[in-house]
Recover the amino acids of this structure.
C-alpha cells in the first residue's frame, strides 16, 4: 500500500486489445501473407480485385502498417522529396499535384518543401530530406551553379529528377522545356507585326529556363535581321516585385518598348500590375506575350498571348522518370515542347508610333 493510504486502482488483469497484424489481415481476406505485402507496398503486379479485397480487410480490422519496420527490412522508405522554388507559383502547384498523384498510384508518399527562392533554405531542405532517407528527389532548384550543390545532391544516395535545371556532372534525370522554340516563335510574330523595340523580363541566367528563353529571343532578332534591343532586356528575379518595377522602368523610357515578353508567372503578374499603374492596356498600347500560363488563365487573362508548356504533363513525366530510376533504370532527359498561342494582346502597340 502507498504511504498516503489512498486506494490505488489495480491494473492487474486489465486486458488490452492486441495490435492487428498482417497475419490477421491475411486471415480475414483469405489470402497469403505475401499477397498482403504486395498490396500494401504498392506493388504494380497486383490485380484490382486482390487490392480491393486486401484493403477492405485491412480497413475492417483497423490495420495500420508499420512503415518504419518495413523500411528497415526493405531499405526503402516509400517516400519522395519534392523541392519547389516558389510554392506560391500556381504553375508549380499543378506540377506537384500531378506528380504526387502518379507517385501515390505507385505506393509512394511525397514530402513537399518550399525553398522560397533562397539558396540557404534549399540546402537545409535537402539536408532534411537526406535525414529522412527518401527514396528519390524531384527538384526545381533556385540556382544551378552553387559550388557545393552537386555534392549535396549526391549525398542523398537516391535518384534525382531536375525540373528545368541542369547541374553539370550530376547523374540525374531532367525534364526540360524547349523554351527556345516558343519564345522564338512569339518574338518573330511580334517582329513581323512591325515591332522592333521588344522588351524581355525574366529571372536570372543562373538557371536553364532563362538561358533557353533568352536564346530564343536573341535568335528571333538574328533570323529577322533586326537590331537586338539590349537595353530592353531585364534579367534578375522571377517574382512579381521585379516584374512590376522593371515594367514601370522600361515603359517610362523616352524610347519605350512597343511590346513585352514576360518570363514566368511571377514576372507576368508583376508586369500586369506595372502596366495597370502606368495606364497601359495590353493589346492596345502595347503587344504583350506571357511566358507560361496558370490555372484559370483563360478567365483572368484570356486576351493575353502566351508561350505555353503543359504543367500537368511535366508532373507526370517527372514522376515516371523517378520511378524508372528507382527500379534500376538509367537517367534520361525528357524534352517538353512549348507552343506560342496567339491572342488579342499580340495586336497592340504600334498605332501610337505611327501617328
Amino acid at each position: 500500500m502507498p504511504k498516503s493510504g489512498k486506494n490505488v486502482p489495480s491494473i492487474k488483469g486489465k486486458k488490452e486489445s492486441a495490435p492487428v497484424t498482417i497475419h490477421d489481415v491475411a486471415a480475414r481476406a483469405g489470402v497469403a501473407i505475401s499477397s498482403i505485402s504486395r498490396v500494401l507496398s504498392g506493388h504494380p503486379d497486383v490485380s484490382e480485385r486482390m487490392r480491393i479485397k486486401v484493403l477492405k480487410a485491412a480497413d475492417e480490422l483497423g490495420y495500420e502498417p508499420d512503415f518504419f519496420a518495413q523500411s528497415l527490412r526493405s531499405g526503402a522508405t516509400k517516400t519522395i522529396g519534392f523541392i519547389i522554388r516558389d510554392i506560391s507559383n500556381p504553375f508549380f502547384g499543378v506540377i506537384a499535384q500531378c506528380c504526387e498523384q502518379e507517385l501515390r498510384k505507385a505506393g509512394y508518399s511525397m514530402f513537399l518543401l518550399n525553398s522560397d527562392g533562397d539558396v540557404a533554405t534549399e540546402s537545409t531542405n535537402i539536408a532534411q530530406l537526406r535525414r529522412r532517407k527518401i527514396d528519390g528527389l524531384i527538384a526545381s532548384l533556385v540556382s544551378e551553379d552553387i559550388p557545393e550543390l552537386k555534392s549535396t545532391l549526391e549525398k542523398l544516395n537516391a535518384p534525382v529528377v531536375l525540373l528545368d535545371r541542369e547541374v553539370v556532372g550530376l547523374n540525374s534525370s531532367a525534364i526540360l522545356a524547349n523554351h527556345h522554340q516558343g519564345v522564338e516563335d512569339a518574338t518573330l510574330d511580334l517582329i513581323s507585326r512591325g515591332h522592333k523595340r521588344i522588351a524581355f523580363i525574366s529571372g536570372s541566367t543562373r538557371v536553364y529556363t532563362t538561358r533557353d528563353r533568352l536564346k530564343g529571343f536573341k535568335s528571333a532578332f538574328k533570323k529577322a535581321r533586326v537590331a537586338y534591343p539590349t537595353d530592353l532586356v531585364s534579367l534578375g528575379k522571377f517574382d512579381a516585385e521585379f516584374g512590376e518595377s522593371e515594367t514601370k522602368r522600361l515603359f517610362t523610357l523616352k524610347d519605350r518598348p512597343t511590346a513585352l515578353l514576360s518570363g514566368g508567372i511571377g514576372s507576368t503578374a508583376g508586369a500586369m500590375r506595372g502596366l495597370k499603374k502606368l495606364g497601359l492596356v495590353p493589346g492596345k498600347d502595347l503587344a504583350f506575350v506571357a511566358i507560361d500560363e496558370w490555372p484559370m488563365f483563360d478567365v483572368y487573362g484570356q486576351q493575353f498571348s502566351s508561350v505555353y508548356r503543359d504543367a500537368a504533363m511535366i508532373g507526370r513525366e517527372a514522376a515516371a522518370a523517378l520511378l524508372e530510376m528507382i527500379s534500376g533504370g538509367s537517367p534520361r532527359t525528357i524534352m517538353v515542347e512549348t507552343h506560342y498561342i496567339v491572342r488579342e494582346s499580340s495586336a497592340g502597340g504600334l498605332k501610337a508610333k505611327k501617328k
Notes: The first strand starts at residue 79 and ends at 84. Confidence is low (pLDDT under 50) at residues 1-15. The chain has 14 helices and twelve strands. Residues 178-309+339-354 form a domain with the Rossmann fold fold (CATH 3.40.50.2300).
